[in-house]
Amino acid sequence: xxxxxxxxxxxxxxxxxxxxxxxxxxxxxxxxxxxxxxxxxxxxxxxxxxxxxxxxxxxxxxxxxxxxxxxxxxxxxxxxxxxxxxxxxxxxxxxxxxxxxxxxxxxxxxxxxxxxxxxxxxxxxxxxxxxxxxxxxxxxxxxxxxxxxxxxxxxxxxxxxxxxxxxxxxxxxxxxxxxxxxxxxxxxxxxxxxxxxxxxxxxxxxxxxxxxxxxxxxxxxxxxxxxxxxxxxxxxxxxxxxxxxxxxxxxxxxxxxxxxxxxxxxxxxxxxxxxxxxxxxxxxxxxxxxxxxxxxxxxxxxxxxxxxxxxxxxxxxxxxxxxxxxxxxxxxxxxxxxxxxxxxxxxxxxxxxxxxxxxxxxxxxxxxxxxxxxxxxxxxxxxxxxxxxxxxxxxxxxxxxxxxxxxxxxxxxxxxxxxxxxxxxxxxxxxxxxxxxxxxxxxxxxxxxxxxxxxxxxxxxxxxxxxxxxxxxxxxxxxxxxxxxxxxxxxxxxxxxxxxxxxxxxxxxxxxxxxxxxxxxxxxxxxxxxxxxxxxxxxxxxxxxxxxxxxxxxxxxxxxxxxxxxxxxxxxxxxxxxxxxxxxxxxxxxxxxxxxxxxxxxxxxxxxxxxxxxxxxxxxxxxxxxxxxxxx
Length: 632
Known about the structure:
It holds the Pfam family NPHP3_N. It comes from Thelephora terrestris. This is NACHT domain-containing protein. Keywords: Repeat. There is one protein chain. The protein is of the alpha/beta class and about 625 residues long. The chain folds into five domains: about 5-190, 3-Layer(aba) Sandwich (Rossmann fold); about 195-295, no CATH class; about 300-370, Arc Repressor Mutant, subunit A (Orthogonal Bundle); about 385-550, no CATH class; about 570-630. The protein has 27 helices and eleven strands. The chain has helices at about 5-20, 35-50, 70-85, 85-95, 105-120, 145-150, 170-175, 175-180, 195-215, 225-235, 240-250, 255-265, 280-295, 300-315, 320-330, 335-340, 365-370, 385-400, 420-430, 430-445, 450-475, 480-490, 500-515, 515-520, 525-530, 540-545, 615-620, and strands at about 25-30, 55-60, 125-130, 160-165, 185, 345-350, 360, 580, 585-590, 595-600, 605-610. A five-stranded parallel β-sheet has the order 2-3-4-1-5. Helix 10 (about 225-235) crosses helix 11 (about 240-250) and helix 21 (about 450-475) packs parallel to helix 23 (about 500-515). It is globular. Residues about 270-275 have low confidence and may be disordered.
């Protein structure tokens, strides 16, 4: 935050952090664009300066490692261990005895990585978690907040500062009985409008005076009336001010001309007789002005390219660099970079075309994908673009994948080849890695079965499926293949009966993967040396890929006629093991000597481990999920 701005909220946070009788949790909640992350950054810096900051985690929907709930507690533990020797001394023995703790449940992670070492270290500290709503969390109540509610009372010297949008699952988490009375709440979008306007005005004056000096613009720019108009248009949204300044700094026009573009656009906060205003009208107007200024002279063909490129930035599962966007979408790199440069004020865009680019703020993709807000058809990103993206992904794999792309020796394990995963990512390139890992995300949100998509999917399963498994095995993400095929089968349920053979093929591919998952995950070559030769004689996968069966060794007898009813076997070292399925069918929970394992029901990979102290004496006799699958 700029000095002199946000004083009321910063004082309130300072009062909370320094108080002996204040709540252990502070929740700063605000609409998109109200400045939550800037405040969180300032708060973290202040806590760092006075020595009270223990750790921080800034979530971001567009960055894979910063949107994964299961990385929050390990990251916080790492930072706490760096700061506090006593915490580190307690944590190291735990990690030595259980290196897989980072793969266990969130509850186990917080209990073992955060609570127990903090209890041992006895250090007062503050932990900051920003933008919790940007983490991938499908629970009806925030998973992190449910756990925080259970455990925060055990570490009374520790305080948690959290920010998020007021989304339903997060609000439900804070309303829970354990957290409701342990939380101070500050609603940012309810701060007095005049206070916010003064802060926005200070920001504009500071940033634009710097810009005027840098560009040697004559004194008197901008005028007080122009600043007042900008403040009015911002309507309390700091993101409007940030985006405006980024736009004015853009080099393709003088700042004064850029400012005129904004001034000449409709002021949606003051016109009478207009349709009912929405919360984001002022922000939408700014985005429209920037897009119009960048692409007003483009013809229909050019606008189609604009939609494809910006749509890829907006809809990508993970941020892609311009070079990968060009490869994936079939454009020349200079076309992509030139286009993105025109709207640089709306993006995080590096000079290096191999660095990922993403929207500068979540409100921009929200605008672009909402037909009621982005009413200009030239710029609206329709869900139909997902169909184009899945076609591009499948097409790129079709033209690039082949057998044994990395020349791995016959019968070698993946672990035998030093640096294989890194080699795979480098050799494949960002676009192909993205296509292999993310195509199904676009498939499942393609609204209507499209013949081109169905044809491409059939070709993928019948020609490139095994080569794709090789890639995912080498990248160490074979579980993605199971998730992709499961999601594909669910999507194929919507297609006409004419495509039943395609459904059967996808189902057989999943059955093949399930049967030989462990083998394939450990060795890509053994797809052809072990898995395929042992596939049942009547299986679709064997008929499709019989020419790929290794000739080095041949199965003479014992090949099954069809798939066994038993899809996979999981070994659990316990005499008292019990197991149960989750209602959704995605997980299997099984008890063992000292706790419970939760496994993916398709791959049998361990998703979580719940350590239950003393459970070996209890002899767990039964397990059950609640009907909604949230509790066990």
